[in-house]
Amino acid sequence: MFTDDVWAHTAKLLRAIHEHPFNVALGDGSLDRERFAFYIVQDARYLESFAKALATAAVRADDPEEAAFWARSAHDAIAAERTLHEGYIEEYGLTAADLSGVRTSPSALGYSSWLQANALSAPYPVLAAAVLPCFWVYQDVGEALVSRSSATHPYRAWIATYADPAFAEAVATARRITDRLADAADEQVRAAMKAAFVQATEYEWLFWDSAWRLEGWPTRQWV
Ligand SMILES: Cc1ncc(C[n+]2csc(CCO)c2C)c(N)n1
């Protein structure tokens, strides 16, 4: 199956994601609030773009079941964004003025823009492959983190959202859709699907890494 193959192909990268200092610190609860808050703000921005990419997939799907799945996922991404805003952002005491003062990081902007470009101009099967790591990598990381985190863990509520059984079901559906599309695709489209899956997984690593580095814009000093 296509998704088994690309998952195996990204095994080293996935290990690097699991072992990234951000995720290690998130797992043992030692992650500092500044990095977690930075991550949450960037993720809230990312989720807005991701929801639009999913909504576009719903428009472009040639099968009504698939359209319904993407539309539901777009809704869920917006709901996740709201939860972040109402929950963690409030908990961290961030005001609307604080939030508007945080610039979207180069990596978060890169990932979001790349997804939107795929949504608008890549073949539909390539779009499915581009959004799959977002579902799958998170569920994989979430499951590993939950098994390591205690009930009193400071970030447990966040981790739990990604280890939810309903979320595992969404991963299975996204994989089924991508496999069906890969089966029907020609060699060229399949190669583009694989490249998109790998690129998105690289962006997933970069997203955590940029939060760890509190990545800003070095050019800010001149504007
Ligand atoms: C950078 C980044 N990548 C993936 C997710 C996970 N995620 C967000 S919405 C959604 C699907 C619909 O609920 C998934 C899997 C995230 N939060 N941030």
UniProtKB/TrEMBL annotation:
<dbReference type="InterPro" id="IPR050967">
    <property type="entry name" value="Thiamine_Salvage_TenA"/>
</dbReference>
<dbReference type="InterPro" id="IPR004305">
    <property type="entry name" value="Thiaminase-2/PQQC"/>
</dbReference>
<keyword id="KW-0378">Hydrolase</keyword>
<dbReference type="Pfam" id="PF03070">
    <property type="entry name" value="TENA_THI-4"/>
</dbReference>
<comment type="similarity">
    <text>Belongs to the TenA family.</text>
</comment>
<comment type="function">
    <text>Catalyzes an amino-pyrimidine hydrolysis reaction at the C5' of the pyrimidine moiety of thiamine compounds, a reaction that is part of a thiamine salvage pathway.</text>
</comment>
<feature type="domain" description="Thiaminase-2/PQQC">
    <location>
        <begin position="14"/>
        <end position="213"/>
    </location>
</feature>
<comment type="pathway">
    <text>Cofactor biosynthesis; thiamine diphosphate biosynthesis.</text>
</comment>
<dbReference type="InterPro" id="IPR027574">
    <property type="entry name" value="Thiaminase_II"/>
</dbReference>
<keyword id="KW-0784">Thiamine biosynthesis</keyword>
<protein>
    <recommendedName>
        <fullName>Aminopyrimidine aminohydrolase</fullName>
        <ecNumber>3.5.99.2</ecNumber>
    </recommendedName>
</protein>
<dbReference type="InterPro" id="IPR016084">
    <property type="entry name" value="Haem_Oase-like_multi-hlx"/>
</dbReference>
